[in-house]
Design a protein that fits this description.
This protein is mainly beta and 437 residues long. The protein is built from three helices and 31 strands. The radius of gyration is 20 Å and the shape is globular.
Amino acid sequence: MDGRTEGLGAARRATPAWAAMGALALLAGLGASSLAQAPAASAPAAARALTVALPGMPAVPDAANLYSEAAAGRFSDAVRGDLERIYVPNLRSSDVYVIDPQALKVVDRFKVGIGPQHIVPAWDLRTLWVTNNAEGRSDGSLTPIDPTTGKPGKAVMVDDPYNMYFTPDGKSAIVVAEARKRLDFRDPKTMAMQYAIDVPGCPGVNHADFAIDGRYVIFTCEFTGSLVKIDLVEHKVLGYLKLSMPSTRFKEEKAPRGAPGKAWEPGPTEVCSIERGMPQDIRSSPDGRRFYIADMNADGVHIVDGASFTKVGFIPTGVGAHGLYPSRDGRQLYVANRGSHKIHGPKNGDGSVSVIDFASEKVVARWGVPGGGSPDMGNVSADGKFLWLAARYDDVVYRFDTASGEVRQVKVGAEPHGLTVWPQPGRYSLGHTGNLR
């Protein structure tokens, strides 16, 4: 079967199986307060469902949409009074630019540690952490930002913090020590070490997302084209999954196609001679059963069944698929295609955004960057009207209109990476640039 269409066929074949799953699967991860809202189940089945959730994790009110509490307008009281800002870490200039999204201009900037990669909202939503991983050095750090003032605090020295997540129960920060092939579980406030899990089979351990019931997390392994699944109850590696490559991928062309606000179509393809992928961001389906993994070498999104930990499909999206962001209503997934297969790509490349419909697992829209560009990491505005993305190779930030695809730009520092939009709706943060639930 053609590698560029296998995912759509697999998705169609798998859909009846989703509907056939019983109430036990739907109830996994629900707290007692949510039980009455779920489909009917026998008493033994309901009891089993309640025992599989990670203790201490907030209940899942809607088992069909784990993003329901991050919908537009559903702000926590914890973010009341926080400044409306876009925080942009600039990797090469080791600083953070602060953008006023209403004025579309930079209103502040400040120095942080060496090599800031991502800006990560804390589990309790009260701190934004800048992960300064100081690649190749031993003086990595985390810089806290107070979201009520937009100002940085005193940095905490932490080894190799490329990225950071939080366990669903809020008991631990997970510092992704990429160069060490290790996940460091730390106190979420003081960052004191609690314990570590080595992932020797995961060079380039990178991005993550969590099971709907909080019992496991899946991380991407950038340099082996694979994934690793971690048991958060037993604190151990459950296994690795090598991601197969499609038969073809898109040609990397500098000149983009399309115009502002117009649907963009991908260009010509070539035989994919690369045997190993470069998986980046990962996000769960709304019902928690599937995970979508952006792959820069495959130019699309792998689909993996979470329970069986097997690949079940693939969706081609664009050159250098990289960042993944669900829409505020949980119906669509925005894919940032960085426009290059290289870690350090050219300026004005063939970057774009593809929009995937979760229900059909089909691309329903594509937005190009006029003049070329490199959409990377970011997030959706609180009202869902805009998608903010750093342009990794072009030293700007993009604001895509999610209704039309029209793009606005703001100049920032050198090599912007994992920006965050703040405040965001949601009860708690699982980390990265704002994976809220």
